[in-house]
Amino acid sequence: MSVDIIDFNARWLKAWSDKNVAELVMFYSQDTVYCDPSVPNGLKGREALRGYLTKLFESTPPMNYVPHETWATHNGYAGRWYCTISAADGTKTYMRGFDLVVLKGNEITLNEVYVHPVEKLP
């Protein structure tokens, strides 16, 4: 695989943290499939993802994603990350997540996201 998955993952998670929809959707292919707990049956296509992310980011507090571990697969990678969620009142909550990322070239064709809350960061 010609993609540096450590760098790719770090840049991709930064775009999530920045809530930069325009930059973020460019990581995905035109026919991407995206699934997370809010859309378990998935979204198909970059434009559907753009609409979903725009609404999602309008309704969520600041969230800072930090890569933890990344494992290469035959067609992409799996990555674990931690997220700090900052509420308007100053309180913070934490989440650990895991992404399955299938790549074609340097675009994500499949992204499955699994998350759960944690009490603290490692």
In words, what does this structure look like?
There is one protein chain. By secondary structure, the protein is of the alpha+beta class. The protein is built from 3 helices and 6 strands, in the order ααββαββββ. The chain has helices spanning 5-18, 21-25, 46-59, and strands spanning 28-36, 39-44, 63-73, 76-86, 92-104, 107-118. The protein has a 6-stranded mixed sheet with strand order 2-1-6-5-4-3. The protein is globular, with a radius of gyration of 14 Å. It starts with a helix and ends with a strand.
CATH class: Alpha Beta
Query: Can you count the helices?
Result: 3
From N to C, what is the helix and strand string?
A: HHEEHEEEE
Beta-strand percentage? Answer: over 45%
As for the CATH topology, it is Nuclear Transport Factor 2, Chain: A
CATH architecture: Roll
Averaged pLDDT:
97
Helix/strand/pairing category = alpha+beta
What's the end-to-end separation, in Å? 30 Å
Major β-sheet profile? 6 strands, mixed
State the share of residues found in helices, binned by percent. Answer: 25-40%
Instruction: Tell me how many strands there are.
Output: 6
Shape annotation: globular
